[in-house]
Amino acid sequence: MDIAKTKRRENIAEYILYLWQLEDLLRALQFSPEAIHSTLIAPRKDIAEEQKPIFLMWYLDIATLLRQEGKEEKGHLEHTLHLIQELHDLHLQLMKLPVGAHYRTTYARLEPELPRLRELVGNPGMSDTELCFRALYAAMLYRIKGEGGKGAVADTLEFVSPAIAELAAMHGKVERGEIDLFRNA
């Protein structure tokens, strides 16, 4: 809960990837309140005892959403998919507005890799932004397994990470009012 709030405020991309990882972790724990508490809450020394029930309820709310959306076994919450769509809309704006000049340069290095990524992920209908998130998440899982330094995983991190990082940074600046997309447009 606290980690998610911080990530949401500081970096939307990290927030999305964190929630995806949390979805998989909750599935692995079979949505069991006891397993969630003993794995995700009890070991944390930075949470006061009186706060632990609040954290448990937050995790259980996510588990409930996964069930309600029929995503007990796989898939991602609509909340994160909407955020990715919001980022994709920003991507489309940055691709044509003057404020996106640097982003376009970063994205141009990624663009030739997209057909290969699309082939690996196997969903021709998803947006480039969602494709990048799915590739990053897969790369993150490979790294957790200790297979992150080779082949497609390393390529993904080399090309996708800078583009998504810049997109997330621009999103944060727009959200905080530090950038006006349409000024001088």
Structural overview:
This protein has 185 residues and is mainly alpha-helical. It is 70% helix and 0% strand. It has 9 helices and no strands. The radius of gyration is 18 Å and the shape is globular. The N and C termini lie far apart (39 Å). 21% of the residues are buried.
SSE layout and pairings?
Layout: H1 2-10, H2 12-28, H3 33-41, H4 52-68, H5 78-94, H6 101-110, H7 114-121, H8 128-144, H9 151-175
Helix pairs in contact: 1-2, 3-4, 5-8, 6-9, 7-8, 8-9
Strand content: under 5%
Give the radius of gyration.
18 Å
The parts where pLDDT drops under 50 for at least 5 residues are none
The secondary-structure class comes to mainly alpha
Shape: globular
* H/E series: HHHHHHHHH
Mean pLDDT: 90
Compute the number of helices.
9
Q: Give the termini separation.
A: 39 Å
Let me know the largest β-sheet.
none
Helix content estimate: 55-70%
Count of extended strands: 0
List keywords for this structure.
9 helices, 70% helix, mainly alpha, globular, 185 residues
Summed up, what is this model?
The chain is mainly alpha-helical and 185 residues long. The chain has helices at 2-10, 12-28, 33-41, 52-68, 78-94, 101-110, 114-121, 128-144, 151-175. Helix 1 packs antiparallel against helix 2 (12-28), helix 5 (78-94) packs across helix 8 (128-144) and helix 6 (101-110) runs antiparallel to helix 9 (151-175).
